[in-house]
Amino acid sequence: MRNFVPARKRVEVSPGESVRIIRELQGFTQSRLAELCGIPQTTISGIETGRVNLGVERAKTLANALRCHPAVLVFPGWQIAA
User: Per the CB 3.0–4.6 Å rule, which of 36, 42, 44, 70 could disulfide with 65?
Assistant: First the structure.
């Protein structure tokens, strides 16, 4: 493993895009996600398109409904140094 070379990041994903991707993987519509978490559908749409900032509290609420860790939504491109 001395010649280990970390993989390069190929795609940039914004927090809003990560919300959309995880929502779709869970099989939820924006309306269903809104019902589950209490955030208006229009706000979820705004987050996914980048018009509305995700924010930590919204990330916690959405992560709970999407059954993922909030960091997955807030820091989708985060890489740990090897």
Answer: 36
Q: What are the tokens at 75? A: 């820091």
The two three-digit tokens of residue 2, written as one number: 């001395």
Domains of the chain by start residue, with CATH: 15-74 (1.10.260.40)
Q: Hey, what amino acid is at 26?
A: Q
CA angle 20, 57, 52 (to 5 degrees): 50
pLDDT band of residue 53 (cuts 50, 70, 90) is very high
Assess contact for 53 and 72: CB atoms under 8 A. Answer: no
Structure tokens at 58: 């919204």
Q: Which residue has the tokens 């409904």?
A: 65
What the block records as the tokens of 66 is 């999407």
pTM for the model: 0.80
In degrees to the nearest 10, what's the CA dihedral of 16, 17, 22, 25? Answer: 140
